[in-house]
Amino acid sequence: MGVVRYLFIALILLLFVACGESKPSISSVTQPPAETSKAAPASGVRVALIMKTLTNPFFIEMEKGARRAQQETGIDLKVMTATQETSIEQQIQLVENQIEEGVQAIVIAPGDSERLVPVLKKAQDAGIRVVNIDNRLDAKAVLANGMKPIPFISVDNEQAAYLSAKFAADKLTQPTEAVILEGIRSADNANQRKLGAERAFRENSRVRVVAMETANWKIDEAYLMAKQVFAAHPNIGLVFCANDMMAIGVVKYLQETGRRKVRVAGFDALDEAKVAVFEGRMTGTVDQQAAQQGYQGVMTVLKVLRGEAVPQEVLVESRLITAGELK
Amino acid sequence: MKFFKIGFAFKLTAFLLAIGVLPQLIFQLVSYSATRQAILDDARQHNMVVVANQRDYLSLQMEQINSLATNLASVDEINQVLIAPGETGQSAYDLLATKARIGYVLSGYSNLRGLVSIDLFTLNGMQYHVGDTLNLAHVRTDLRDRLMQSSFSAGNRLVWHGVEDNVNASSGSTKVVVATRAVSRVNSSSAAPAGLLLINFSTDYLHRYFSKIDLGAGAYLMVIDAQKRLIFHPNKKLIGQTIKTELSHLLQGESGAISLQLDGRDVLLSYSQMPDTDKNWYVVSVVPGDTLLAPMNRIDRIGVALLVFNLLLIALFIRAYLRHIVWPIRAISAGFRRFQAHQVEDGWRMTKQGAVGEIRELVDWFNSFLESTEANRQAQVSLRIAATAFESQEGMLVTDADSVILRVNQAFTTITGYTAEDAVGQKMKLLKSGRHETSFYASMWEMIGRTGTWQGEIWNRRKNGEIYPEWLTISSVKGSDGVITHYVGTMTDITARKAAEAEIKHLAFYDALTQLPNRRLLQDRLIHAMAGSKRGGRYGALMFLDLDNFKPLNDNYGHGAGDLLLVEVARRVLSCVRETDTVARFGGDEFVVLLGELDTEKAPSVALAGAIADKIRQALARTYKLDMPNADEVEHHCTASIGVVVFFNHDCSVEDVIKWADRAMYRAKEAGRNLIRFYE
Question: Is A26 in the B-facing interface, judged by CB distances under 8 Å?
């Protein structure tokens, strides 16, 4: 039998040898570079941060905070914004895109408190965890759409606005006409800030609110609105803007028309606004720690993903910034 | 034997392989190579198509970006910002408002999938941006300046730079495909570029798209830019890396396909150049030979299975062949070898294990050969024993069934005097003495026929004519069929024995000196005589003789003289009686004469007896002349006293008759000797 076995092996070998060919042998690429970044190793978790607009520097801070969370956790973070504060449909589209992309979590600063709810419900149904920052989604709409509770991170907008408005009004010595420039009216934070300002102005007997208008958070709309409002009420001496962008628009108008006495209160503590506060063109603004909100938003959604319990509401501390503080 | 061992199985195996496996192997190799070539050609074409498709897709993407850039460049607002002063020359409002306005414009164009960002850099140092980050604090100025320079020198058209770092370092997309376009102011006397439109396209997006394309196991695509950097590679970490020159050198011309070993694997590399040649980009597909030849695996497996099956079949056949034919034959030849070397033990038989058909018969015959050989040997041994036994002290002869002598031994010759030459061929009656009646022989043969053997005394004749007694045993030898084939006779010459017997008998019953019956024989004869008297109804007589003057002879001349006298007395008495009468020496100088069958009457019987007695008395009374050896003749006178008893039947005992005769003798002695007296 030994002979047979020997022949068998020889045949098999022959079969394999017959199939071999010689070819040029090269290698394609050098090894990938070693990881030099200090970032945590990639976790594979994909999170989308969807913000309102690319024009408001406030959101740059918010992104920075989120990026810090990304650096710490190694997640894959996509940052996107709608073009303008009013581009609600675009924001809805962004959420839709992220559902399609299959991200695990969405951290959203919704431009509108109601209109974003259905699409976010859709995201939740797709298994995507949602955390709400900055502008609160409308609780009734959330409930009505049958959504699971959504953790919310923001500041106490009403109180912060109250403080900003109060600070501006407190220095008044004479009865003064005031105007409140609101954000998008269907946005909860805009409403809260309006309420805060109203409360502050109500408490001050010298202040009389003559107009409440919206400039949709926008710098250029605020400029135009200022023109309009001052044309109707030339004696206005106090302006509360629900954000700094609008405040800067108003200041631009005041400068152009030489109305140096009008007091302007802002919100958001943009660098440009702080400069204006420092120079006395604005009375104050509110630092609502946008970076912290972005950071907390991402960290909270990661906790949710891990199945940990998170508080339904986290209020980041806000701080009134005045000229005195900057000096 | 050794040659047989290897050669037989080896040759058969080689033969079977040659007719069974070799053609299959050749067919398989040929068809394998043909199929392989066909599959490779097919795969080559298929891959060329795949690569071309991906090239076209990429081309389309680039075309979209191209038109996007062209459109943007002619937008009014953008034209306006080209002349806007730098950051320091603008109020916060203007800065923010312009940025917002341009942002809106750019954003309007940014909905193209895969777009990372659109940036507009003006020569005044302004950056307008829309994209995946809002943070423009970290701009890679070196890269920006380099891109700007290379784009400005290319005029107002879109320049593709390939894969580069993202100008905006804050972006999540670190490696991007960069396209730039120099933007000049419209309605300006100078055509010099005043800004740079920079479009970052996502390599991640391309990665996702290209990763979805399934080219088969282990196969992948690569997209390589003009600087030989990887725009796409399945390993994300490699994106942006430069490929080795040895690989990039292979990418020549518009398209092609090369078989080579890439990173230690046999692959088919297909490539196609992007149509716009100044980009000099390539879409490359790398498909492992294994994947290409995956359809071959089935053919391979079937082929190998067939081959294995074939070989197994051959192995089984060879095994069966060895087991049933070669080994049994080998065993048989080994058996013969052992047989030749006398190593086969009696009773050992070859097993037929494994043997089939004719081989089985061969084993049977071998075994029967052993059997008969053994039987022969045993027969020979028996014969030797028989031959030795044949040459014994006893005479032996063997005849055939017709009593023709076949063989005799030396003892036969000694006994009969016939040599083997004399005897062989003769019938047994050669030895016939004529002493026996025909009936003797008839009964002898009858007994042999019945019992198979006969023994007894027989008188035969020697060659010299002498008749002698022998003790003969004849046995018949029967064949296996029960028919008598031979007779075997053993004979012992009993002449000497017979003589000795006679001698002993004589000594016992006769007087050594006179040769007359002694007292024992006399008694015996007396019994017979008395019995005969009863039978015949005749009287008998017993005479008691005592020599009257015997003692002096012995005394004077010695016993020798006495003996001579006794012998003469015996002769004289014998001469006086009938043949049938008995004269016995009773001891010393006493003799007894028995007369039988006298007469039926007493008186005549007495008279007859008396006459004989007297005749004896007279005979004995004559002078004796005794020839003494070494001496002179002696003359002696001697008489006898005779007592007679006549008896009839057996109304008395032997002892009585003798006693009575003795008494009658004594009365004769008393009456003066040389007298006869009857017992009354």
Answer: yes
